[in-house]
Write a structure and sequence with these properties.
single chain; 328 residues; alpha+beta; Alpha-Beta Plaits; Creatine Kinase, Chain A, domain 2; 7-stranded antiparallel sheet; two-stranded antiparallel sheet; globular; glutamate-cysteine ligase activity; ATP binding; YbdK; ATP-binding
Amino acid sequence: MAGVPHGADTVGVEEEFLLVDMASGRTAVRADAVLAGVQDTVLTKFHGELASTQVEAATGPCTSVADLGEALREARRTLAKVAGELGLELISRGTPMKPSLQPIVSHDHPRFRRVLDTYAGVVEHYEACGCHVHVGVPDRETGVRVLNHVRPWLPTLLALSANSPDNGYASWRMVQQSRFPGSGVPPVFTSAAEYDACVARMVACGTLVDRAQSFWLARLSPKLPTVEFRVADAARTVDDAVLQAALSRALVHTACLGDESPPVRDDVCAAAVWTASRYGLDGAAVDPWRECRVPATALLEALLEHVTPALKARGELSLVHDLVDQRV
């Protein structure tokens, strides 16, 4: 895409899944057994999660959303086949309908042990699954500019993805995630150094386990040259995951081209996240610039308009509109 810096062209997705016992309908502590039956591929790696009732499939960087979609489909087929042989169903949903009655956090993994010791009851029965999108950026300074740009749009991505209805909320996962310190839209940063200092400060204060951890809905990856969007619920379908990936990359490209959004208040962003988790696309949303309620679909239309040039440049505009039509 003309004008986009080198390194800002790739996209990858991490999908988290629940393992559900077919007989009881409850999530099952069987991640180790499932992972023992799958092998990594050139495009996809399989991992365990904090909860032993979950598994993750992470694609490598893709330039084509068609290739990304195929990698996601193959990963789902692979995991579902092994799970089925073990009497389990692979479920892509933000939170379980019937949680496990057993402890779900691994006590053997040293880092997971530290997480459990730090957050105690918040994680003891935390079975939340997300669809995380990594978009390549050329450097961390560009990544910080991207984070500042995408802040107002994160609630709309959440509303579009909402896939964990419970207790009257479209995304109960986001309600559960809000209990972690620092969860929500990231602050505005002036530089990568300021970003790193903020993370280090939270580690020093004891609210983060280490510098590789943060609970912001978008962040700089601690390991990869990417901006990581962590806002979306687990995708119901591969098409939903592809839609999140395409929109996230289009937002990054728009930011790289220098299109700056007007500043928005932190408290209004927090209100927008809560409203998106409450209603999804089926009710009100908070316009972060006008600071009032509007229909959620109006902000989705505004998002599509905002990233139209980036989508057109990649030849993805029609695809994204088709996928949005399927979702709404």
